[in-house]
Amino acid sequence: MNELLQDKTNQKILELLEQNNDMTLGGIVKNLGISAERGLQHMISLKRQGLVKVEDHSRYALNL
To answer: pLDDT digits over 17-46, tens only?
Structure first.
């Protein structure tokens, strides 16, 4: 998990979700200026580690 948190994009995603705990993937990738595919790869990695969860209407939130 340490490697996962060292990735700057993952850190930025978690920071965005700390600021707004209810974001869609589209909002995240637009905010970061990355492709949807890359954003989805990061979200899947974060979800596998239990750091984020998918909520209603495909919104992501921190998994606290």
So the answer is: 999 888 889 999 999 999 999 999 999 999
